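Q: Structure tokens for this one, please.
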Amino acid sequence: MVIDIHGHVSAPLELYAYQAQLIMSRGFHGKGRVQTDDEKIVAAAENHVALLGRMGIDRQLISPRPFAMMHSEKPEKLVHWFIEQANDIIAKQVAAYPDVFSGVAGLPQSGGVSPAAVTDELERCITELGFVGCVLNPDPGEGDGQAPPLGDEHWYPLYEKMVELDVPGLIHSAGCRSHRESYSNHFITEESIAILSLVESRVFEDFPSLRLIVSHGGGSIPYQIGRWRAQRIQRGARPFDEDLRRLWFDTVLYNPESLDFLLRIVGPDRCLFGTETPGIGSALDPDTGRYMDDLRPVVEGIEWLSDDERAAIFEGNARTVFPRLPVKQREGVAG
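A: Here is the predicted structure, written as tokens:
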């Protein structure tokens, strides 16, 4: 079975019309709701489901689209209202395609606000909507430079709730208002900052069962690992690699060389298959004729992986990190 742990919802356009109304009115007219019906919500996912079938992906975990999560928007209530509606749409698509999708909760994070403010929505998504994890933005200020890094105790209320609910977090940046870097580059920056903060902190001593996955192959850290190894050696500290392996990593890298390198550095036992399809990688590679986010053949083509290691990447590691995943396979697909 192939489980893709990194996907985002294909929502009807009415969700984003609702968002625009919230932003334009600044919430003056109240929360309201997305003006659409369940039939349109389900129909919006039809092409998405067909694409997963063509790529040989049996199940995908979907969360809100990062660029739309507007965590830096004010007032804070706008963020809560929009994320709640996005999560509800995900829940309806999961209910319509229970053998294909599982839900990953968007968190209504706001710049300058304690993460304790998002724990009610996380609990709702897990206990009422049946979601299996959450997506965690390490920079809810979206480039304002004010958010403490993930190793800071500022984040402990959220970690406590994640441990209580036994759910993992996918570290994934969202929007970016900085003039210094693009939206996509901001992902890499924030993922790198997140890793270095976490491995130099007490987070995993204080929360030994906390499970965090770093998106997009770990930002820059696995590919600059010599720098961080050298610093640990100079300090006479524990090897950097030991702490790096407290984290998990997805395979959302769109070239075989980088994916091969990631697997060698952190190990196949710490990598979970992910594609983020459909998304930024949905471009045809002129050299292969395949979409760049068609990553199942890439993993299958890494010759030094054993059959057991491939099985772990495709399914086993996901079941370890996401224990709430359903056991049932997509109908008609062999495991």
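A few notes: The two ends are 4 Å apart (CA to CA). Residues 330-335 have pLDDT under 50 and may be disordered.
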